[in-house]
Amino acid sequence: MNGVPERQPSYNEKRETDVISQHLREQQIREEAADWAVRLSQGDPDPATAEALARWCQADPRHPEALAFAQATWDALGQLADEPAAGEPPRRRAPREAARPAPRTRRRWRWASGVAALLLVAVLGVDAGRPLLMPLLADYASGTGEVRRVTLPDGSEVELDSRSAIDVLYSDGERRVRLLAGEACFSVAPMGGDERRPFVVESAGGTTRALGTRFLVGERGQGAWVGVLEHSVAVNLEGVPGERVLSEGQSARYDRVQGIQPLLGLDLQRASSWRRGVLVFDRVPLAEVAEQLNRYRTRRLVVTDARLARREVSGVFRLDILDEALDTLTHELHAQRLDVPGATFLY
C-alpha cells in the first residue's frame, strides 16, 4: 500500500519452514499411533472404531508402520508397569484360572495400563526427529554418538558434539556461525593481516564474540551457555544493553528471562570431556546422567523410579561403549532394566 515491496522469505527460510512442518507432521503421527495403541489394548474395537482405524491407516502410508511400532512398544511396557521398583519385593501374580479379576486386581490393571500409557508417550512423544532434520537445515551436523571436527573457510576449527549442528554465515563484515543444536567448541583463526572480520557465534537469541581463540557454546534449556578455554569472549543478549566479558576458565549462561548469569564452579574440562571421547560424572543424580547419555544413544534412556533417579553417579563413560557402561551402571545401582523398541527403562 505504501509502495514498499514486501520482503520475500529467503531460500533457507523456506527450506527451514518446510522441514519443520514435515517434522511436526511426523511427531503428530507418532502421537496418533500411541493413542491408537492404547485404545486397541483395551479389547476388540467396535465397528465404528474399527472403521475409524482403517481410515486412519489408509490416510498415510506411514500410519501402519507407526502403529506397529507403537503396539510393540506398548506390549513391552506392559511388562514394566507391573514390575516392582528397585529394592521392592516381587509382586504376587493373580492366578491364571481366575475367571473374573477381583476389584483390587482390576484397579492394579488400570494403574498398570495408565503407567504403560505414560511410558509409551515418553518413548513415542519425544522429539526424536530433530536430529534427523538438522542435516537439512545446517551446513555441518553430527549424528547420534558422533563427535565431528570441521574446518571453516577462514581456517577456524569447530568440534561438534553429538547431535549438534551449525550454519556458517560468513560475509564481508563478519564471520558469523549460528549454533542450531547441541554444543560446539570453537578454535578461532585470529584477526590480523588480511583477516579483519570479528568471529561471532549466535545461539538462543544471544551472541558470543571471540576475543581470543578457544571457547564452548551449547544449548541450555531455553537459552545457551558459554565457557572460555583460552583468552576471552564477549557475550551479548538481544534486548539487554551492554555485554559480559568472560576470561579464561569462566563460564555463563543466558536466556530471555534471567539474562546473562555466571555459571559458578563449572569444570570446563569435565564439561567438554566429550572432545576426548568420554563423559565424566562426579556425584551427579542419575536423572541428569540419563539426560546426558541420551545425547549419544539412539535408544532413549528413561528412569521411571523417582528414588533411583536421585541416586548419585560417579564415573568415566567411554562414548564408544556406552551400552557396556550402562550394564555396569545398572548392576552397581541394583536396578532393573527393560529394553523396548526405541528406549531403555531403568527402575
Automatic annotation (TrEMBL):
Chain spans, region Disordered: 1-24, 82-105
The species this protein was found in: Metapseudomonas otitidis
Assigned keywords, A-Z: Membrane, Transmembrane, Transmembrane helix
Pfam families named in the record: DUF4880, FecR
Protein name in UniProt: Sensor
Transmembrane segments: 109-126
Molecular functions (GO terms): sigma factor antagonist activity
Presence of keyword Transmembrane: yes
Coiled-coil ranges from the UniProt annotation: none
Highest rank taxon of the organism: Bacteria
Domain FecR N-terminal: 31-72
Positions of the FecR protein domain: 139-233
InterPro entries referenced in this protein's UniProt entry, alphabetically: FecR, FecR_N, Ferrdict_sens_TM
Comp. bias regions, Basic and acidic residues: 12-24, 89-99
